[in-house]
Amino acid sequence: MTNHEGHIKLWDELARTGGNWKVKYNIFRKMFPEIRNSTCFACLQCAWDCEKCPIDWGQNNGRGLTCWDDGAPYQQWGDEKSKEKRQRLAAIIRDLPWRDK
Q1: Do residues 68 and 58 make contact, with C-beta atoms less than 8 angstroms apart?
Q2: Domain limits, the chain
Q3: pTM to 2 decimal places
Q4: Residues 74-88 pLDDT 10s
């Protein structure tokens, strides 16, 4: 399984269930027991160097966003209380462009 395939599998499950925290409920560990010490396939791919993140999180005022920036879909998903909106945001995250570097 590639990191991109794992990313799609994880976020597809979160889009299906509307889960609100991939770590709190151990969704990542249940789905990927062979992978330790991570909850993000993009972070695994870029060795936690946000400048090299394979996901295109979008732009704000001409600069690239990271997952933690305000306005990024991941930040919105983490803050969202509505299950339906989390499902929608998880689907957006699942489908974001992935750059293999």
Answers
A1: no
A2: 3-95
A3: 0.85
A4: 999 988 889 899 999
